[in-house]
Amino acid sequence: MLELRAAQLSDLEQIRAIYNDAILTTVATFDTELKSQEDRVRWFCERDENFPVWVAVENTTVLGYAALSKWSERKAYSITAEVSLYVEVSNRGKGIGKLLLNAIIKRAIEATKLHSIIARISEGNEQSIYLHELNGFKLMGVMKEAGSKFGKLHSVSFMQKMLRE
Q1: Confidence band of 165 (pLDDT split at 50, 70, 90)
Q2: pTM for the whole structure
Q3: For a surface tag, which of 22, 52, 98, 108 has the fewest beta carbons within 10 Å of its beta carbon?
Q4: Which residues does 127 contact at the CB level (< 8 Å), separation at least 6?
Q5: Rounded Cα distance, 85 and 21, in Å
Q6: Could you tell me whether strands 80-87 and 116-122 are parallel, antiparallel, or unpaired per DSSP bridges?
Q7: Mean of per-residue pLDDT scores for the chain
Q8: Which residues, at least 6 apart from 81, have a Cβ–Cβ distance to it below 8 Å?
Q9: 137-154 burial code (b ≥16 CB/10 A, e <16)
Q10: Distance CA 110, CA 125 (A)
Q11: Are 118 and 159 in contact (CB under 8 A)?
Q12: What is the mean pLDDT of residues 143-154?
């Protein structure tokens, strides 16, 4: 049975494996260097109540995760988070990403002081754009050829969801 819950330190090795696969095989992240276990522990431990990580777990296997991260280190931006969403490759297309995005948005509304969430989505990822639109994100603009990965320039769509009026 699939469970959605706050991530724990014991989930980090599986989270790291999912993210490292995305680094190696997708443009969903513009990271190009694999993350170590120490890096993921630091990433996890530097969070506060405004920046949770949620996992989708079946039995003891992490199938995907969603995280809210600081948009900027500048204090005035502390009311805005960036969402990241990754699903293990063999579990994509099963609705896990939708469940995770719904859960992290609900958590942001109910348990944080965030005002909005930003999503950066690389070109060609129409499924992600559609998923975010279904969850109330609006296209704010496109940065043309903002990153280079796998020998190609990639544009990035910026989407935003307002959490509070």
Answers
A1: confident
A2: 0.94
A3: 98
A4: none
A5: 13
A6: parallel
A7: 95
A8: 50, 51, 68, 69, 70, 71, 108, 112, 114, 116, 117, 118
A9: beeeeeeeebbeeeeeeb
A10: 29
A11: yes
A12: 96
What would the mean pLDDT of 36-50 be, rounded to a whole number? 94
Residue type, 25: T
At position 86, the amino acid (one-letter code) is Y
Nearest-CA neighbor of 90 among 21, 2, 35? 21
Here the tokens at position 146 are: 């903002």
44 and 67 Cβ atoms separated by less than 8 Å: no
First to last CA, the chain: 36
Among the listed residues 120, 113, 6, the one whose alpha carbon sits nearest the alpha carbon of residue 52: 6
Domains contained in the chain, CATH given? 2-115+131-136 (3.40.630.30)
What would the pLDDT profile of 88-146 be if each residue is shown by its tens digit? 999 999 999 999 999 999 999 999 999 999 999 998 889 999 999 999 999 999 999 99
Per-residue DSSP letter, 113: -
SS3 label, residue 154: strand
Q: What is the per-residue pLDDT for 124?
A: 82
